[in-house]
Amino acid sequence: MWRHGPHNDVTDVPGILVGQAQDLTAETGVTAVLAPAGAVVGVAVEGSAPGTRETDLCRPGNLVTLAHAVMLCGGSAFGLAAADGAMRWLEEHGHGFPAGNALVPIVPAAVLYDLGVGSATVRPDSAMGYAACAAATAGPVAQGRVGAGTGCTAGKLFGAAGATRTGIGSASICVGDVTVGAIVAVNPFGDVRDPGSGRILAGARGPDGAFVDTTRLVLGAAVDVAGGAGENTTIGVVAVGASLTKEEANKVARMAHDGLARTISPIHTMYDGDTLFCLATGGSTVDVSVVGTAAAIAVELAVLAAVRSGAPLA
Questions:
Q1: pLDDT tens digits for 219-260?
Q2: Which of 37, 69, 95, 226 has the lowest tally of Cβ within 10 angstroms?
Q3: Strand ranges in the chain using DSSP code E only, listed in sequence order
Q4: pLDDT per residue as tens digits for the range 138-175
Q5: Can you give the pTM of this predicted structure?
């Protein structure tokens, strides 16, 4: 079977560091997942409204194999600027792809929309990305209303006003001598459900404050589904303490989305930009089917951790 790692978060994977920075007044932030020595990178973008950087580079058939960090950012497309700060920090510390006369740090990134919760004019920038990297450690990861989870909510059927606070969550599981971890900023259009009971844990609320069941209303055409358009997206990173090829890392990233599907309903809508990266830090050779299955479980647990750690929406 499997067990949790010592911290039960993504930093249980050897070679992975996590740093976070946020503006609690503006309710936005960034989470830097660092692999300074380089990790084989893959990606799966399953939502239809993504905001991303360097995802083409992550796919098979392209030259670069290793990434040195992944940035998870609030601030919608403006938040991609945080990756510039991560590049600057990595370059200063001697990490990057050797390209002629310079080391070029490889920093894929994805953003979520949190502009409707706090300030729409204050977004993550290069300085915040740099600060997140400077704060990165291999220690326990703060969860909830921190980093990219600062402005996260679930259930935007009626917009941010009817949503439930979530945040960022992380988990790890060990299968044999291999650790697989996940960190996920949970900001979906849909509701978060307990995968065992189906009970809604976070989601859209009606005027009485009770959950309304987004899936039921969508299927019944009882509401304008586009009411929460552009206010969503769940993003995350799966890290694997084993050796994967680039093709295998992309497969694991795709399989990891099963963890989102088991906990969020509906998921991967036209109004979500759901994106998961995979970072393989090296080690033993593993069965991709086993690792992908573990990744989906880790993502599922990370989503639930984000909901448990979230604070009531003011």
A1: 987 566 665 566 899 999 999 999 999 999 999 999 999 999
A2: 226
A3: 17-23, 28-45, 52-53, 66-73, 97-99, 102-104, 109-111, 153-154, 164-165, 167-175, 178-186, 191-193, 200-202, 235-240, 264-265, 275-280
A4: 999 999 999 999 999 999 998 888 899 999 999 999 99
A5: 0.96
Over 80: is that where the pLDDT of 21 sits? yes
DSSP string of 78-108?
A: GGGGHHHHHHHHHHHTT-SEEETTEEE----
Q: Mean of the per-residue pLDDT values for the chain?
A: 94
DSSP letter assigned to residue 285: B
Rounded Cα distance, 146 and 143, in Å: 6
Give the model confidence (pLDDT) of 169-202 as tens digits.
999 999 999 999 999 999 999 999 999 999 999 9
Provide, for the chain, the percentages of residues in helix, strand and coil under a 3-state DSSP scheme, each rounded to the nearest 5: 30, 30, 40
123 contacts: CB under 8 Å, gap ≥ 6: 26, 28, 74, 75, 76, 78, 79, 81, 115
CATH fold for the domain made of 10-138+150-309: L-amino peptidase D-ALA esterase/amidase (3.60.70)
